[in-house]
Fold these 2 entries.
Entry 1:
Amino acid sequence: MFISDLRYVPRTCLRDWRMHFGTLIRGLGLSMIGLLALSRAADCQERLGEAPRERVHLYILIGQSNMVGRAPVEDVDRQPHPRVFSFGKDDVWVPAVDPLHFDKPTAGVGLGSSFARAMAEADPEVTIGLIPCAIGGTPLERWEKGGDLWSRALERIRAVADDGVIKGVLWHQGEADGRSAETAQSYGVRLARMVSDLRAELQLPILPFVAGQLGPFLPATQRDGNPAHWEVVKPQLAGLPRCVEWTAVADSADLTHTGDSVHFDAASLRKFGRRYAREMQRLQSRQQHPAFAAFEARADLPNVLLIGDSISMQYTPEIRRRLEGRANVHRPLENCRSTRQILERLEAYLGDRNWDIIVFNAGIHDLTLVDKDGRGAPAPEGAIQVPIEQYAGNLEQIVVRLKRTGAKLIWISTTPVGARAEAAGIRSNQRVTEYNAAAARLTSANQIQQIDAYTTLSERREELLEDGVHLTDQGVIVISDAIVSGLEPILAAASR
């Protein structure tokens, strides 16, 4: 038996294995160093084996040298946490002390250790397992589906997938792609595709993914004197959460380097890891939304799909409750936001299920004014996110695809905004009515049933909208009444 063979020891057998440890050592004639290494690995495996699988949270660490860490290891970095482990270079669980990675002899303090400690301290009932896979100097291309590092990372992930529950991905990369104008300009699109492919490969469609911003200290030129393109990569990293749901970006502002203007220093990496943890916790907290709660669909009931933004997320649980025993009410496991996003992800939303009814809405995000970074901003900094002509065109393409499902389609108009939202200057009821009119023309032409949420809420909008946009508890009841009333005749006909 080799040390690496420990990963194949069943969790229930670890304690018995330790009882015979002395006999094994004498039989193998291992050196004292080998004995200590084997004992430490066995101890880690036993402690992981004692924890319920659902309480072992696994995190994947991928990227290049700033994920590895190149800062010198200090005493504070050598102190293990009793509930934090790392899947080491010998393919066994070991205490998570720096260096976690092993790509080069220069591997040092990384952000993974402080991240894991923060996650463990936030929940004393969990054990954290890190799966380090990062390699210094590597471009995104090697991490994309089919790349050598993609395959290597999946091999390591699958080796330990049964030891716990994969809870998230940490990514820091982009410096290598900033060396070329071509790779820098395509970075955001390729990264979004990589995230989607990784989730599909792991069959975890809403796996939280936290990237880190590049260092603020990166110079304008590369070491060879050629211009760098890191300033092209940075906004694409910052924009990842607007393109891909369940992603976040940890800020690198005020962090400093080791003296080489490329790598974060030790103190900065410890701080950076805690920032990653905050973003990961925020994503995980959002996933506790009741709209995403799992339920058991009944084969004898019609399938209803709700597609919509955060307002539809609010009424999803109420619709599901009211139709319990009469319909399976599903929704995508994300905020569907705008017509642009729905059009991009519609095939994933539809999946391979046969839909009987599809209830859909989009508009409030489309008509919002945003700045160049995608944040809400009034004019002149802000511009309409999806102009009305594009909105109508997107909606037309969505309708064409939805009609091919054969489902009964129901359109819900965009809800009004309250005085507080109008005062902010990024949304207005004038634009809401204009966008609703465009949607009404299209849905009427396609003989699609309409539910007028705007009129339903308009006269009482100050009472029914808690922040001028989202629904109060009473607002959820009022709009759910309207939606269920629209569904009732269809469900009644289906039951006959």
Entry 2:
Amino acid sequence: MRRRVLVAVAAACLLAGCGDSADEDAVRAALTEYTTAMLAGDGAKACARMTPELQEFVTNAYPEARDCKAAVAAIDDHVSAAGGEIEIDDIEVDGDSASALVSSGDEGRGSRQFLRKLSGSWRVDVAPRNTV
């Protein structure tokens, strides 16, 4: 009986996309590109990896910025000192949503980043309302 339950759970997980290593690899690649671009102040690359909602949020956070790219340049003044290697752990994919723990710098502090798949591409997103 236990074996049937495990097989059923595994089959359901495969159908739902649980543990899809291709999605996990794509999430890791998207977060690596995004975080590297943010740390370098590369607004074009960083904004290309954001959902439209996150682009709007970032732009609104810096009223003097005319667009997302300019806002990332303003952010760069504060984050470029973090340095260190980027670590991405605890990737969780659920359909077109994902999250992962991202840390950089020597102190190893990190934050949970949320992503959404748009037109087949993973983009960094604002935190879902129910997690804040």
